[in-house]
Amino acid sequence: MKLPAEEKARLEQLCRQFRIDLIETLHQRQTGHPGGSLSVCEILTTLYFEEMNVDPADPQMADRDRLVLCKGHAAPMLYRVLAEKGFFPVEEMKTLRCLDSRLQGHPCPLETPGVDAATGPLGIGLSAALGMSMALKLNNSPARVYAILGDGEIDEGTVWEALMAAVKFKADNLCAVLDWNGVQLDGTTEDIMPMGDIPAKFKAFGWNVIECDGHDVDALYDAFEQAKTVKGLPTIVLAHTVKGKGVSFMEGKNAWHGKAIDDESYEKAMIELGGAK
Amino acid sequence: MGKAIRDVYGEALVKYGKDNKDVVVLDADVSGSTKSATFGKACPDRFFNMGIAEANMTAAAAGMASVGKIPFVNTFAVFLTTIGLLPARALGSYSKLNIKMAGAYGGMSDAFDGPSHHALEDIAVMRTLPNFKVFVPSDATLTDWVVKNAIEDKSPMYIRLSRDVFPDIYQEGEVFEEGKGKIVREGTDATIIACGLMVGNSLKAAEELAKEGIQVRVVDMFCIKPLDNELIVRCAKETGAIISAEEHNVIGGLGGAVAEALCQAGAQVPMTFVGTHDLHGECGPYAKLQEKYGLDAAAIAKAVRETLARK
Prior knowledge:
The complex is a heterodimer. In chain A, about 50% of the residues are buried. Chain A has a five-stranded parallel β-sheet with strand order 1-2-3-7-6, sandwiched between helices. A two-stranded antiparallel ribbon of chain A has the order 4-5. Chain A is an alpha/beta fold. Chain A has one domain: 3-Layer(aba) Sandwich (Rossmann fold). Chain B is about 40% helix and about 20% strand. Chain B has 13 helices and 14 strands. In chain B, helix 9 links the parallel strand 10 and strand 11. By secondary structure, chain B is α/β, with parallel strands linked by helices. Chain B is globular and about 55 Å long. Chain B folds into two domains: about 160 residues, Rossmann fold (3-Layer(aba) Sandwich); about 130 residues, 3-Layer(aba) Sandwich (Rossmann fold), CATH 3.40.50.920. The relative contact order of chain B is 0.12. The interface between A and B is medium-sized, with 34 and 31 residues.
């Protein structure tokens, strides 16, 4: 299923703005993770603006869809998207990682309106998302649960425990997304922990597997819509992405996983993104 | 006579959880041992066997709690508080989620399986987690109350259970309160502050000492967190000597918590720590292990005499 052209254009415009704002915030704050935030931009934007039933006026709404950002270090992009949705003022992005801020270095639901799960330690987010989906099923809730994993994160064994359990419990209200950018903190995933045939691995664990371009909002939308129609099985969207997407010198570079953005890099990035003042 | 704590626990889950649709129970393939299977039989739709995957189980329970469920998470105490610790901290503690971690086979109660299956560090680990409450019931009646209370109180909790039979301390209908220790025997010469198995052993020690003319007060400190600081300080002032007694490493557990309370209040008195002393035990009959590792009534009585000599 395709997005209407004007809707696609709207999402793409939002993503352009989010990237500019992300670089602005991370440069200003001199802390935070640019690489993984840039790679997850379209995934978060498509989910929050096209798929998820959430209400900024009632962040705890019982039957809301949930999102677990398992790769919690991409919190700055999650916050930017939540702010755009109206959960808190965009202005508040300035307080990211500051003392007394609601915008902690990694997501925490007790701190930030719109955040559904505390993440940061890798490997347990999918399990938490599974628990949510099991509880929502018990409640006969129509809500869906989304879990966004990093590809470095799947080094963690717990992820594979959750994959097994989600199939056992027929968690068809659970949709995982792999932000498959091929780079983790110390290097490429191929160098650090080669995973071999990733789609085959997820298929072997019994999941419905959809592969798509993780920077194409149309393709992401189509994948999420397909996932909704699958009964009795959880779905994982293997989203091909580029770490640092949108800033040429950050793309595919593990050095930009969690590096503070210096003034020169900031100027260059802003010119590339069309955000130069 | 007393009942096996694990049996009482399983029955209590059914008694208080059967008609409460929010109660869900998870186990990691040891439900026949933890007795969570008793609930599983009564309420199969709310019982989830998660396989031998404790971290996934605990994190999934946290996810369930965030949707409003009251999950009881079950496996042996040693695995729950080590493999399950990351999700307990990162999700349960940090987000103050309503998860109930029930550590079966506390202390050396899984006697014959040996140190790999003993839990002698769990109280220390779990009481340092912000927002967590920690309970160590000493008999059947109290175990029943702890389960009922866990369903009513929305805090994350660690409940340390036992494989074994504990002698009855309380009459049915006894009233308990979170954060309030129970004086189970009066005395003026010293106070033994105990939890779990050690409450029964302490009462035996007190009997023994009474024959020597030593009158010992025994406190059941079943709620390690929040701790009854007021009672601890009062016992120090009224009896002038404190002996902590726990089936746990003397580092960081009940004794440590009691000492913290006394120091904070400036109420230091001679104190002795009964427990295991920074070691892993071995396999063997439970009673023999208690004797060898200084957890039985004789060891407690000896500690009382030594403490009195320092008064």
